[in-house]
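User: Batch of two.

Assistant: Item 1 of 2:
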Amino acid sequence: MAHVQRRPMKRQMMSDVSALALARVIYVFFGFIALSIATRMVLLLFEANPSNWFVATVYAVSKIFVMPFFVLFGLSPTYGASTFEISSMTAFAFYLLLGWGLTVAVLSYGPWHGVVDGD
């Protein structure tokens, strides 16, 4: 068998356990955001009653994350009519990509980065 020389790590940023734990926290956080926005989109498509406590809670929670995209497109939220919000769809994609990107960044600085296995 050929001998594989391992490159020494210059500086270990975080342990593998803390990197994986942080990646899971990021996934859960951004997953919650994406789920709240997706629920908002479905409720808006089916003309859910905004005076219902569940619908009002979903709208209030997701509004925090969707509002910057309303400003970006110069739109305002519409409730009580069947609508497809392009701002919500853009926010959904943005937060999914942001969560994925942060997770990849965290995992790329783990102790396994740059290690060659095999002997």
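Item 2 of 2:
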Amino acid sequence: MIVEERIYRIRNGCMQRYLKLVREEGLAIQQSILGALIGYFTTEIGPLSQVTHMWAYADLEDRRRRRQTLAEDPRWQAFIPRLSENIEQAENRILLPTDFSPLRDFASVASAVVPSKESRP
């Protein structure tokens, strides 16, 4: 199992708009394809105007397939320009849980099959 950590610096004054877009539109598209969302977070202390979201995948190939499916989805293609205009900087990291990490329990969720295009709304 791997965890993808995506960290976005949101443009000043755009946090509420960004979160509303994700909450009302983006998350439904992402979760139907990417699957195992671990969490979505904003910062309170430290670097301000940051959003971090984490997704579990079976492995790098699983992540590649799911991200490709998301990129090809017409709903995502229509949505992403509106979301991106709120993001100033983006950073991605791949994290490997230790053998004693409670997140290893996500492994079975992360290995679920990517939905086919026909089965998605």
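The domain at 2-112 is CATH 3.30.70.100 (Alpha-Beta Plaits).
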